[in-house]
Amino acid sequence: MVSTQIVLANRPKGMPVLTDFRFEDIELPVLSDGEVLVEGVYYSVDPYMRGRMNAAKSYAPPFEVDKPIIGGVVAKVLESKSLDFVAGDLVTGRLNWRKKDVVQEKLLKKIDASIAPPSYYLGILGMPGMTAYVGFIHIGKPKAGETVVVSGAAGAVGVIVGQLAKIKGCRVIGIAGSEEKIRLLKEEFGFDEAINYKTCPDLKKAIADLCPNGVDIYFDNVGGEISDAVINNINFHARIPLCGQIALYNSSVPPMGPRLQPMLLSRSVLMQGFIIFNYESLFPEAIKEMSQWIKAGKLKFTETVIQGFEHLPIALLGLFSGENTGKMLVKA
Amino acid sequence: MVSTQIVLANRPKGMPVLTDFRFEDIELPVLSDGEVLVEGVYYSVDPYMRGRMNAAKSYAPPFEVDKPIIGGVVAKVLESKSLDFVAGDLVTGRLNWRKKDVVQEKLLKKIDASIAPPSYYLGILGMPGMTAYVGFIHIGKPKAGETVVVSGAAGAVGVIVGQLAKIKGCRVIGIAGSEEKIRLLKEEFGFDEAINYKTCPDLKKAIADLCPNGVDIYFDNVGGEISDAVINNINFHARIPLCGQIALYNSSVPPMGPRLQPMLLSRSVLMQGFIIFNYESLFPEAIKEMSQWIKAGKLKFTETVIQGFEHLPIALLGLFSGENTGKMLVKA
């Protein structure tokens, strides 16, 4: 059977471009026992994938040049030689960017569309949701009445963190990059305040004005100068879950910035880099709680869906120019 | 009764100088009930005192201009109107820089010279010892076989951290600023290796060579470029207790450096600023364990003692040019 795949054509230096990807037609092998033929329905694009395009040592092994990109996928089972799946099942897994693929059964999990729409298993009930939950609840350790700032607030993780902060009784301020995002954060997702960093003349002062008691938790999705402005307002005993550094992912040399350790030291701040794949033991608790909050209407989610498998590379690039609100997905 | 005190004459900008201090003769009040007349024996000078010379918000309130400097002191009781102390007792407390002083009984603790020499209550059994213990054991969470790097290794805290690392079965590499310190670390304090950062042509490479499995705990006493070099070799799931940033204390504007968050994130590193005064509940455990290790000969200590109360300011300044090995003290 014929399929199409998207491979890494070469490792980008700095911002990736479309020619870093290549489309290829391939012939799939015949199904063996324990294997499943699937067809992709939704493909996830996520900021962390930029790191895997580099050769450097990181938490996930690098993508290989001339091999398919791998990411979160929701797929439909077309044919099964597995006892666990039947044709028509909806499944999710970390799969090759292929239109159709033959996959080992152990790489797949069935999804329950009665809890949430299938695409949510790449978002609020998938990696971004787990990331928001683990980073905010387990590393951030929120207490009612505390002040929370979220950068990249309109992204897939950010919109969840903001709502978790409200559920936990915190005041929450989001930072995002357009007036439309600011409006959504306040009107749809219940953020107390939101700042458009692209038009704000003095971000440090704006945060100081909105956080008169200082910032107790800074959930950092972006890094760079936005983070400098927040950390200048950080409180004693604050927690900074380091979730993303999207502002810096495309730098080929480490960018310079003000040294933050003196402030982290003098204010007894915790900064914790974390990778969601190390916290899998917390996922059942996270899914249970988040599902309840979704059903109770306390936790909403939003997606930016691009149509067409052929637009996967452009969707991934769009993350770095802030094209998305909420989870960015491609629908095949 | 007449005494002499040392006050903060003005707030230094950048590196403090002798004219930032002023000596004054004062008349002490008559003793009231609950008060004790003490005479200073040992005065502690510590890097954190530089922070208190600034007006900025920090963990300890700033010293006040025209008021005495306050620091750790071991003193002898000359006269007592307290039921807790008698003349001749040796006590310790955070006291004014005065030759003699009238002090509230609640500010003083008796010391037990049978456990360790009196000056040790400003060092290994005082603030530096508690700092090393809490930072290394409770924040660093060492596991046998891990690799530990300590900057400012020949300082009061550093020599203790290195020995605690050996007690816990770790490999430990110290960074210090003279050949004599390097020799001491290896020959007297049992460090596996030590690097002279002043003569090392490529610190990042030197650390990589000595830490082939990466750095699991970086106990940071200094900050700046030394820390950059260590953090470039940091391991997955490493811990960085931020104890001091002596390289940066005298900067009046925040210095620039490479942004570290991308590495902290991609390697799931914890960085924790900590202030020993927030961990007082751990002191009894720390004193008990450290006293046992001292008696068993597993934990040694060293001091640099400057003679003369009048040399207190110069001793404090000496910390920033690395004049001391181990704890810097002034003997009255």
Structure explained in plain terms:
2 copies of one chain form a homodimer. Chain A has 332 residues and is an alpha/beta fold. Chain A folds into 2 domains: 2-123 and 301-331, Medium-chain alcohol dehydrogenases, catalytic domain (Quinone Oxidoreductase, Chain A, domain 1); 127-277, Rossmann fold (3-Layer(aba) Sandwich), CATH 3.40.50.720. In chain A, 24% of the residues lie in helices and 29% in strands. In chain A, strand 15 (303-307), helix 9 and strand 16 form a beta-alpha-beta unit. The longest helix of chain A is centred in the middle third of the chain and has 13 residues, at 127-139. The radius of gyration of chain A is 20 Å and the shape is globular. Strand 14 (270-273) of chain A pairs antiparallel with strand 14 of chain B.
Architecture blueprint of SSEs:
The structure is a homodimer of 332-residue chains.
Chain A: E1 2-8, E2 21-27, E3 35-44, H1 49-52, E4 70-80, E5 90-96, E6 100-104, E7 109-110, H2 127-139, E8 147-151, H3 156-167, E9 171-176, H4 179-187, E10 193-196, H5 203-210, E11 215-219, H6 224-231, E12 234-242, E13 256-258, H7 261-266, E14 270-273, H8 283-295, E15 303-307, H9 312-319, E16 327-331
Helix pairs in contact in A: 2-3, 2-8, 5-6
